[in-house]
Every structure is written in C-alpha cells, then in structure tokens.
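Work Package 3 committed the consortium to producing structural models of liganded targets before the mid-term review. Because experimental data for this complex are still outstanding, the team generated a predictive model from sequence and the ligand definition alone, so that downstream docking and mutagenesis planning could proceed in parallel. The input record is reproduced below exactly as it was submitted to the modelling pipeline, together with the SMILES string for 2-OXO-4-methylpentanoic acid.
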Amino acid sequence: MIINIAVIKGDGIGPEIIDGAIDVLKKVEEYYGHRFLFKEVLAGGSAIDVTGEPLPKETIQVCKECDAVLLGAVGGPKWDHLSGELRPEKALLSLREELGLYANLRPAVLYESLKGASPLRDELLSNGIDICVVRELTGGIYFGEKGRNQKGKLGEAAYDVEIYSVGEVERIAKVAFEIAAKRKGKVTSIDKANVLESSRLWRSVVTNVAKQYVDIELEHMYVDNAAMQLIRDPNQFDVIVTSNMFGDILSDEASMITGSIGMLPSASLGYGSKGMYEPIHGSAPDISGKNIANPIATILSAAMMLRHSFKLEEEANSIEKAVEAVLREGYRTADITSAGMKLVGTKEMTKLIINKLGVMS
Ligand SMILES: NC(=O)C1=CN([C@@H]2O[C@H](COP(=O)(O)OP(=O)(O)OC[C@H]3O[C@@H](n4cnc5c(N)ncnc54)[C@H](O)[C@@H]3O)[C@@H](O)[C@H]2O)C=CC1
Ligand SMILES: CC(C)CC(=O)C(=O)O
Ligand SMILES: [Mg+2]
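The resulting structure, written out as tokens with the ligand in place, is given here.
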C-alpha cells in the first residue's frame, strides 16, 4: 500500500529539519517494507517568494489528497512587513482550518538523560515530566474577527476577538478526556474565567463534558496560575486542555522545562485519520542554515504521524526509542548540550538516530 505524505519544508530551519525527518522515514520505509510517497508543496514565505501568496491553491489540494502532512515551520523577518492576510503564518492557520484540524496534541516529555538540559532543579524532576497539552487549534482569538484603523481611547486602535462556541469546546474537551483515560486520568482545563466571558463558556462546557467521564479527575485553573504552576511543580499535570492562544504559549513553556523547544513534536488532528505533523517551534531564523538546529522535534512529529494517521505503532515506537538511545549515549545538539556531552549538528544528530533505527526495534 502506498502512503501519500504532503511535505511542506517552509522557511528558516524548516528545510534542514524536514530533510532529517524524511531521511528517518525513508529508513523506516526500507526496514519495515512500507511505501511512502512524498509530495513536496510550498507554503509560507517560500510560497510567497515563488507565487506571491502564502498558501497556493495547489498546496491545499495536495494536502487534502494526501494521507498526512509533514510541515517544518513558516515565517521570518523577510516577510514581517506584510499585512496579516499575506504573511507566511496565515498559511499555517488556513491549512489547519481547511483540513479541519481542531485538536493539537503537544506531548511534553522529559527524557531521563535530558534532565541536565532542563532549567528546573533536580528535585522538581525526580518524578519526570509527562504532560500532554491538548490545544484547540481552529478557533479562539487566532480566528476571530479582527480589525485595524479603529478609533481608540488614545489614538488608532486594533482588535482581535476571542470567540468560542459550545460545539468547539465540547469536541476538544472530549479529545482531552479520551487521552486522559489512557494516561493518568487527570485533565486540567486552563482558562481565564475570572475575566473573560469566552472562558466562562469554556469552563461550563468542559464541566458538562466531564459528566461523561466519571473516572477522570477534572481541575480548572486560571492561565496565569498555570504558567507559574508549570515551573513550580510540572508533575501535577497529566493532560492540559486549553484554547488556541493559551495552548500556543503554555506549550512553548512546557517544552523548555523538558530541555528545549527543539524537542517537542505535535500532531494536529480532526475527525478522520488525516493529520498535520510539525514541531511546536518556529522557523528559528537566528540559527537557520548553520546545521545547528535540533531536528528531534520534527523527527518525533514524524513518529506521531506514523502512530496517529497510519496506525504504525511499532514503527513510531522504534523512532522514539532510537531518539532516546542517542540521547542516552550523550549526543546533543547545541540547544540541549551541557558539560561532558558530545556536541553534534543537525545532520549528525539525524544520522545517529537513523543508525539506531532497526537496532532499537
Ligand atoms: N509552526 C510554525 O511554523 C511557527 C512559526 N513561527 C514563526 O517563526 C519565526 C521565528 O519565531 P520565534 O518567535 O523566534 O520562534 P522560534 O520557535 O522560531 O524560535 C525561538 C527560539 O528557539 C530557538 N529554536 C527554535 N527551534 C529550534 C530548534 N529546532 N533547535 C534549536 N533551537 C531552536 C530559536 O533559535 C530561537 O532562539 C517567526 O516568523 C514566527 O512567526 C513561530 C512559531 C511557530
Ligand atoms: C500560526 C503560528 C505561527 C502559531 C504558533 O506559534 C504555533 O502554532 O505554534
Ligand atoms: Mg507557537
């Protein structure tokens, strides 16, 4: 059976990290006898440069036709002067919406051998960190009405509307409860219900959905407290469910306590098996083209693709075990290195992981 994968390399470090993930997938293909067909399409800044638009129609069509999408990252200073609708980031938002990918899973796991890369004290890490952030991905303030050139209290004003409907909150809450049922059985719903009406609706809907999951513990937490609690005692969290913007911000924070933003993968899912898989970080223009970016978040995103879209659990596990083994042997990219470790570049890290595949399965 041929599995079709749309590939969007994107901008900045996007091409370097995607090339690494594709090499890993090619090794999986060879080792397990699968057939992956990679179809490269443009989105983001690189698409603007070639076609004048961030998300060409052809890209949307190919992504819809394929079984999954693998994406690097989009954006960079070169395109920062463009208006909102024409920016590279708009491609990503539109693609998530076009493909109906409303649930973004961002697992933040601390690898035993990476404790030294976490900025937290050892005593806070003794029980490890294993949090699954479930971020709502096609609603909220990133998709609400926006406006510019308004007359404000003190001159020109702009606005972005945070809006959630019951159905949008219900479906993301269900995803979170289903995931928690297969983990430690706790959901922390994060909002700002002491201030925002949309958060009060969020909180009441999540509370209602919880009635269908009597074995799951539900806790509500305000987002400002949550940002603090993640640092104070990350082990208190199992599954976090939250809005688009809060999830975007809190998952970057969660990534750092597990060592680096270069470690966190993500899966964006909808109703079917199709998904989009991408690291949680951006295009990191400050380090692009230098062979120093950490490819692990993207490689682990490819593993999530094998698991969630193609049900290839053993293959996904073999990639995750290979990553773990390479880290255990002390190899580190610059973002996660510390004294006594073996510093390697993007390509070398990818090669080390590929060499472990098969050996580790
Ligand atoms: N999913 C996407 O395509 C996203 C795109 N962006 C875009 O990326 C551009 C840069 O945004 P920033 O705010 O700087 O966020 P960023 O995530 O690209 O970078 C933040 C910091 O983390 C470092 N970093 C990120 N990924 C890394 C990796 N794999 N290995 C080692 N270090 C890594 C960068 O060097 C930088 O110092 C912007 O244009 C932004 O809009 C930002 C977030 C997500
Ligand atoms: C549209 C993206 C740039 C938003 C983001 O930062 C993310 O999805 O992580
Ligand atoms: Mg982000």
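Reviewers should note the following from the model. The chain has a mean pLDDT of 97. These observations will guide the Year 2 experiments.
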